[in-house]
Write a structure and sequence with these properties.
The strands form two sheets. The protein has a six-stranded parallel beta sheet with strand order 1-2-3-4-5-6, with helices on one face. It has a two-stranded parallel sheet with strand order 7-8. It is α/β, with parallel strands linked by helices. The chain has a domain of about 180 residues: TIM Barrel, CATH 3.20.20. Helices cover about 45% and strands about 10% of the residues. α5 links the parallel β5 and β6.
Length: about 260
Amino acid sequence: MGILNVTPDSFSDGGKFFDPKDAVTHAKQMIKDGADIIDIGGESTRPGSERISKDEELKRVLPVLGALVKEIKVPISIDTMKHEVADECLTRGAHIINDVSGLRDEKMIEIIARHKAPVVIMHMRGAPGTMQDDTNYKNVVEEVKQYLKEQAGKAKAAGIEQIIIDPGIGFGKTVKHNLQLIQHIGDFKELGYPVLIGPSRKSFIGKILNLEADERLEGTLAAVTASILYGAEIIRVHDVKECVRAARIATAIRDGKKVW
């Protein structure tokens, strides 16, 4: 899954693809580099970020979505917490909703079910602006797993058939928690849904290596490789070309399949 942030303030690439033409060009390049899904986000979810209106989010996303629907063949995911944005984007040709708030909004569940769309359910405490204020868990793996189980159950009961779960690396977790979640991907797979992991350029890599976001490629590659070896099926990343290469090797090692 290639990350396409059409925001001015995302933590590592804010502003780079804010212009719709630049965003479309970047999406096409990510597909050439091996992306199987393009994930468009119009609102930053970095720690400390402020919410924007649905109108502003749609203003950012719709021009890019409109162009990509006509020009690319891979599925398009919309990274949003707003049911109004999800509804409008699915109506205009988006295929997947990636909800970092984990389907807390009942209307979001209804809309995704009505469109018969797949959903990514992610775990996050609080909101992006406050999520790092509460990182206390008795057992992070069990608590995150239980939350994802409950929310996936609600989605399934509403008629959503294709469900992907995401433990939410970096969303209300410490460095130790993030490492534990990756180490225990197998526990999440027990729920019976594909697992998505988004380690790309995250702060836990920066803290371990003492590096800024634009210097975290090698750390990201290590986290991607580990996530795949532990069982992740989908990796959400910025650096598609490099991560695809790492993913192919990790998958070959994990599954013992010929991939060349």
